[in-house]
Structures are given as C-alpha cells and as structure tokens.
Amino acid sequence: MEYQKIRPQDINYLISVTSEDRVYYGEDINEDYSHDEMQEYGRFMPEVVVEVLTTEEVSKIMRYAYENNIPVTPRGSGTGLCGGAVAIHGGIMISTLKMNKILEIDEENLMAKVQAGVLLMDFNKAVTEKNLFYPPDPGEKSATLGGNVMTNAGGMRAVKYGVTRDYVRGMTVVLPNGEIIETGGKVIKNSSGYSIKDIMIGSEGTLGIVTEIIVRLLPLPKKAVSLLVPFPSLDKCIETVPFILRSRSIPTAVEFMQREVIEAAEEHLGREFPDKSADAYLLLSFDGNSKEEIEEIYDEVAQLCLEKGAIDVLISNTQERHESIWSTRGAFLEAIKGSTPQGLDECDVVVPKNRVADFVKFCAQLEKEFGVRIRQFGHAGDGNLHVYACKDNLTDEEWKPKVKEIMERMYEKAIELEGQVSGEHGIGHAKIGFLDESVGDITMEIMKGIKKAFDPKNILNPGKVVKYNA
Predict the structure, then answer these.
(1) Rounded to an integer, what distance in angstroms lies between the CA atom of residue 55 and that of residue 74?
(2) What are phi and psi of 349, to 5 degrees?
(3) Which is nearest to 388 in space by CA: 375, 401, 399, 378?
(4) Are residues 81 and 107 in the same domain?
(5) What CATH number should be reported for the domain holding residue 162?
(6) pLDDT at 141
(7) Full domain range(s) for residue 89
(8) Residues 228, 214: one domain?
(9) Residue 174 has what pLDDT?
(10) CA distances from residue 95 to 36, 54, 113, 203, 331 in whole angstroms, order as listed
(11) Is 309 in contact with 240 (CB distance < 8 Å)?
(12) 209-216: strand order across its sheet
C-alpha cells in the first residue's frame, strides 16, 4: 500500500482534536523519537508526533489516519529493545506519555485502573503506599504500563509471580479504524468467547492502541530478603539453579551474573559491589509475611547452594547492601552499552529452565569462536536470558557478518533447546526474521491473518511482528 505523506491539512486536523502545544512536526520533533533504546536498529523519524490525553483523542486520530491511509506508530517511554516503537514508515506517532493518570485503586477487589502512560515506578509507589503489590518487575522502571502490556513484559519476579499477562484483567483499546472496545474487566474468571484481551497483550501495538488498563494486585509481602551466592565457575553457578527450583522453596527471583558484567556496572554506577571473590553469582530473593517464614525458606536454599559448590552465601540484611546489589543488577544493560560505544546487538531468548546451562555454555563457545566479546545475564529461574554481542573496536566490515552469524546461531540454539526467540522484549522490526524461522510458515500465516482482521489497511505500527502488503 502507498501510505499518504503528512500534509498541512493533516497537521491542522491533529491540532483541532488535541491542541497546538501537543503536536510537533518538522524540526520541532525531538530526535529521541527516531529510535528506542537500541539505536543500532536504525533511526526513523515520524513526520508528526501527537501527545494524547484521552481515549477519545486517540480514536479521532486513528479514524482520520485510517480514512487517509496514514501510518500510525504508538509509543510510550520508548524503552524497548527491538525497534517496536519507531516510525519506520514515517506518518503519525502517538505518544501516550501524558496519559499518566492512576484512575482507581480498588482495595476491595484488589484491582487498579490506569491510563496507558503511567510509569511503572510511579504505579509501584502508589500501590505500595496502600500496602498492595503489583508483581511484574521489568528492569526498566521508567517504562509505561501500556508498553509493558504491549510486550508482555516479564522481569525478575516472574519465577514466582508470572509476567504482565497474568495480571491484566481488562483494557480499553482503540482499533485501527478508530472504534473503541472494552475487553475483560474486574473479573477473575472469563470464558466469554475468544479472549481479545489476551490477543492484545504482547501484540506490540500492531492490533490496537491500549489506552486504559485494569490490573490485579496482591497484598504487599511484609518481609523480603536477598541472598548473593558466589560460585567458583559459571558452570557450577548455572547448574545449581534446577536444584533450587526443584526444592520446596520458591524464590521470588533467581538471577545469574558474571564478574565481568558486575565490574562494568560498578564502573558505570561509581559504586562497589559487596563481593568480588568469584567468577559467577546467583542473586536470589525471597518474600513472605514473617521473618521466620523467610528464614526457613532461605536457610534451606543456602545449604543447598553450599552443597553444590558455592563459595559462600551472603545475606542482604541491611538496606545499604540490598541497594548496592540490586542497583548493580539494574544497571547491567546500561553498563554493557557504555562499555562498547561503537554498538552492540541483543539476543533475548527463553529456554526451558533445565536448558539454561546449555545455552550459557554455547554463548561462551561463540565468544571464543568469533573473537567477539559476549556478555550475558538473565533470569535463570524462568529461563529468560539476555545476551549482548559487543562491537568494541571492530570495523563495520568485520562486525556485520560476525554479529549476523552469532545472532543466527544463538536463535537456532534456542529453538534446538525447545525455546523461543523472545522472552520479554518482543519482536519489533529487528527480530521478524528470527520469529519467522522459529514458528514456521503456518503459524506466521495465522499471525498475519490476525493482523489483517484487526488492521486490513496495515496502518497501525506497520512492519512490526509480521509483514504483509495490504
């Protein structure tokens, strides 16, 4: 399809349904809108950016865009890592950042209703003040809840509590033609036909624009403790995880990390890590409603780790140590990016929990084979791994063929291990080829059919997840 380029009358219409101070075009568009957190996947400037405040504004914009064949890209904080919120075909970018109201915290039903632009960190603060708990815990706390829903974000607590999909109960969605639908609601059970809500979750803004979300909450656990467990080798570290998960103790999080990544984070933060005696570490967290309950759980896990070869078990029992450990873990991505200013590429795979060690070892072999620095960390408790190939001082001629083959080999290995090509970051436009290879022709055709059913003109976030010509 030939998309319509933005004309003066289009700008005038957008201003008429919003306001002049919320419509940006030409040189007034901030360069940040041309990319997400992975600038290596290219820069694509939208022709116009509109900051929306209400569902009705989004509806009017989408109806106009649909009638005039103008592509539309929805965007929250732009913290994605696959180019999912960049305007690769220009057109209109709808920013939901100013749709940032927490509409309701329903303490009786343990539910909350929010606009899509509410930041995760602001929402967590608001519910914690009411002794409530929103378990999904993606690493980027400045992401929006709408963005989390559109990528089905996971995070470190998924091993115990699940991912975003497990907490979304309802949503308001604007369809590509401007129609508004409500799906789900403040109910726990729902067997009322096809679950449009669940089709929307993880759809990366290709099927509709979510404007309001109802999520379920839990009572806030009263106590939490973390264990930092150093191991003499990465092999021993990773191989211990299945034994922990098979025990009767269920950690809130099970993270693995290597000394090289920790040192990069130390330098990035200007803060020392509590321990540097080992090559690899497990970071475990536990929560519960009493000190005695948690102690019983973590004592058993600590003993198991020591039996499997851990050097020590360090208890994060002070606020200072807790902040030092978790702030370091939270800085891993930025630290790796800072260590290779020439660029990097990311692999976000998920494999069965008992195959994590196989994949980690495979990546170490690739590092030696290609002579490319590869750094990895991830959620060992749910099998989701984040692997970064660093360009460092390689020339473009050296880097491009190497990183292409490295990524292909990683995704092939994940599939061989019965995994998937994305655990929580999504597909965007950067990973479409890998998705195609992993799910096969029949599944891709089904996905294209779903996209066509919602968006027959292919104007909403075109070129993401699946490709087709309208």
Answers:
(1) 13
(2) -105, 165
(3) 375
(4) no
(5) 3.30.465.10
(6) 93
(7) 8-97
(8) no
(9) 98
(10) 13, 11, 19, 17, 26
(11) yes
(12) 102-106, 111-115, 209-216, 168-174, 180-184
